[in-house]
Amino acid sequence: MSETPYYISLDEAVSIAQKHPLPLELETVSLDEAHGRILASDLASKVNDPPFDNSAMDGFAVRFEDTKTAPTILSVIATSQAAASLEPLTISSGEAVRIMTGAPMPNGADAVIPIEACQVDGDTVTLNQPSKPHFIRHRGENIKEGHIGLKQGSHLSPQSISLCATMGYNQIPVVRKLKIGIISTGDELKSPGESLSFGEIYESNSYGLSGLVTSLGHTPIRYPSVVDSLDALRTQFNQAASECDLFLTSGGVSMGEWDFVRKLMEDEGEVAFWRVRIRPGSPPLFGHWNETPMFGLPGNPVSSHVVFRMLVIPYIRASLNTTFPINRIVHAKLSTDVRSTNDCLTLRRVTLQSTKEGFLAEQPKHQGSGNIDSLSSADALTLLQPGQSGKTGEWIEVLLL
Ligand code: AMP
Ligand code: MG
C-alpha cells in the first residue's frame, strides 16, 4: 500500500475517483418513462410557448384605445374559445369579443377586461373599469422556438417533464441507468426476517444503499451477503464486476485481521486510495476489480450511508456530467455542542428547527457510527471542517438529508 494515496481529504478522494469515470451512455425513452432520469442532451423548444397571443382571463377582448375611461359600451361581435376557430377573429373600433382563458386574441384587440368588471346586456357589454393593455399572454413569452429549455444533465423532475411536453417532445434522450451492485460482507450478517443466533445481527446496509441507488434513478443489484473468506469474496466480486457498471461492498475495509475486502483488493485488485479524512466513515477504499470500479464502504451502518453520500454521489454526478442530486447545504446555528475533530470533516447527525433567525441544529442522539436510529431521525449532517469548534451558538454549514 505504500504508493496508494492513504488517509486523504474528501476532495482528494473525490478527484482521484473522478479520474476513472463510469460509462456515460444514452438511450431514448418515451416522455412517460423519462421521470427521474437525467437528460442526455440540450433540448431546444420545437414551438413558441404560447404559440399565439391569448387571454389570461375569462372576459372581453377589446381595443385599449376604446376603453380608457369607464364606463364604455361595446357591441359583442363573437366569442373566442380555446381552439374553436381556425382563423383569428378581428375587431374594429366599438367592438368586443367574449374571450375565455387561453383562447386566441382577436386581431385588433390589445386588452382584456375580466368578466367580473363587465355587465352583459344582450349583444352589448358595459365595461365598468378603464382597461389596461394587460391580461394577454404573448406568443413566445414563456419560451421561444429554438431556445434551450432544458440543459444536458438536468434531472427530469415532474415539472421538467411538463416542460418537455410543452416544447413538443414525446421522446427524450436520457442517460442510461447504471447497474450498481451491492455486496454486504460479514460472518455475522443475517437477512431481516430470519431468526438470529448469538453473535448475529440483521444485515441493513444493503437495504439503505439500494434505496440510495434507487433515489438517484439507477438500478441496484443486491447480491446475497458474503462470509468473511477470500474465496467467497473473489467469486462474488467476479460476478458483480461482470454484471455491473460499479459495485459497492460494505464491511471488511478497516485495519482488522478479518478485513478481507481490503486484503483481496490489495492483493488481487487495484486500489486507487484507501481511508479518507471524514468522521464517521474514514475506512473507505476505491479501486477496480477486473476493470470495474468499486467502492469498499465501511461496515458500520451510519458510515456506509454517509460515505455513499459524500463520496459515491459526487463520483456518479461527475461521471454522468449532471448536477443531480444537488448538495443542499444551509447554514444553521448549533443549539447543542457537537464534537468536532482536528483532522477530519465531521459529519454529525442533527435535527433542524426553522426559526425566524434561521435554522437551529440540535444533536439529540448518541453518535455511534453503528447507531442507524441517529441517522434515520436526523434532518442533516454537520459539515464541520477540521479544527472547527462545534460549540453551542456557532453558525455552521449542514447538508440536508
Ligand atoms: P466491519 O467493517 O466489517 O468490521 O464492520 C463494522 C461494523 O459494522 C460491525 O459491527 C459489523 O457487524 C457491522 N456491519 C457490517 N456490515 C453490516 C451490514 N451489512 N449491516 C449491518 N451492520 C453491518
Ligand atoms: Mg466485517
Structural account:
With 401 residues, the chain is of the alpha/beta class. Helices cover 19% and strands 30% of the residues. The protein has seven helices and 28 strands. A seven-stranded mixed β-sheet has the order 1-19-21-22-18-14-17, with helices on both faces. Strand 9 and strand 10 (124-127) form a beta hairpin. It starts with 5 loop residues before the first strand and ends with a strand. The model has no long low-confidence stretch (mean pLDDT 95). The structure holds adenosine monophosphate and magnesium ion. The site of adenosine monophosphate (AMP) has 19 residues, from helix 3.
Question: Which helices and strands appear, and what pairs or packs with what?
Answer:
Blueprint: E1 6-8, H1 10-18, E2 26-30, E3 43-44, E4 54-55, E5 59-62, E6 72-80, E7 95-99, E8 111-114, E9 118-121, E10 124-127, E11 136-137, E12 148-150, H2 158-166, E13 171-175, E14 179-184, E15 189-190, E16 201-202, H3 205-215, E17 219-222, H4 230-243, E18 246-250, H5 260-268, E19 270-276, E20 278-279, E21 285-289, E22 292-297, H6 301-319, E23 329-334, E24 345-346, E25 349-355, E26 358-362, H7 372-376, E27 380-382, E28 395-400
Parallel strand pairs: 1-19, 6-7, 14-17, 14-18, 15-16, 18-22, 20-24, 23-26
Antiparallel strand pairs: 2-13, 3-12, 4-11, 5-7, 5-8, 6-10, 9-10, 19-21, 21-22, 23-28, 25-26, 25-27, 27-28
